[in-house]
């Protein structure tokens, strides 16, 4: 389970279906007390990592953006407890898809392939922790093609934008092809 702070009172957890299965949580176990144990563990982790403390109000939003994992957004406290400028709107969580590549060569190869078949789409390219991250809007239908060269990122596009270094902010693949034809 990976966690990431997205605002002063919101924590994002990513947990794979494999990890859920290891904990004994199955798809049809929605009323199982095992979920309570998972949520208690999530609160413990949040308190250890970010010192969120206790609150009378707790909200958990569950999203499934891909077939590999679930994303939980844990909100501790009232919505008014945080500065509205710090909030990440849950609807913006699906505005971009992030893919990572171990080296620039894979990104260049992807750009060449998409160019050959006329499917270059607008996207951004970042480097973060010695890996390259391609961020693009969902719905371009290039995801299966991108996955031939890279993998879905296990960190959010927000984290990549915040802590990564922009290589190309716009039209990254087209820009790469200008420099590496």
TrEMBL record:
InterPro entries in alphabetical order: MecA_C_sf, Neg-reg_MecA
Pfam family, one: MecA
Coiled coil regions, renumbered to chain: none
Family: Belongs to the MecA family.
Subunit relationships: Homodimer.
Full protein name: Adaptor protein MecA
């Amino acid at each position: 389970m990976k966690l990431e702070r997205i605002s002063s009172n919101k924590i994002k957890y990513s947990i794979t279906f494999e990890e859920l299965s290891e904990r004994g949580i199955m798809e049809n176990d929605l009323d199982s007390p095992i979920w309570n144990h998972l949520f208690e563990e999530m609160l413990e982790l949040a308190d250890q990592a970010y010192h969120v403390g206790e609150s009378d109000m707790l909200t958990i939003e569950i999203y499934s953006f891909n077939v590999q994992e679930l994303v939980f957004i844990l909100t501790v406290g009232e919505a008014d407890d945080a500065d509205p400028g710090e909030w990440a709107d849950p609807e913006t969580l699906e505005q971009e898809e992030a893919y990572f590549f171990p080296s620039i060569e894979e990104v260049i190869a992807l750009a060449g392939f998409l160019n050959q078949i006329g499917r270059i789409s607008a996207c951004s390219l970042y480097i973060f922790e010695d890996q390259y991250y391609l961020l693009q809007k969902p719905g371009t239908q290039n995801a299966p093609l991108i996955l031939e060269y890279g993998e879905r990122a296990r960190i959010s596009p927000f984290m990549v934008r915040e802590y990564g270094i922009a290589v190309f902010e716009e039209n990254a693949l087209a820009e790469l092809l200008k420099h590496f034809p």
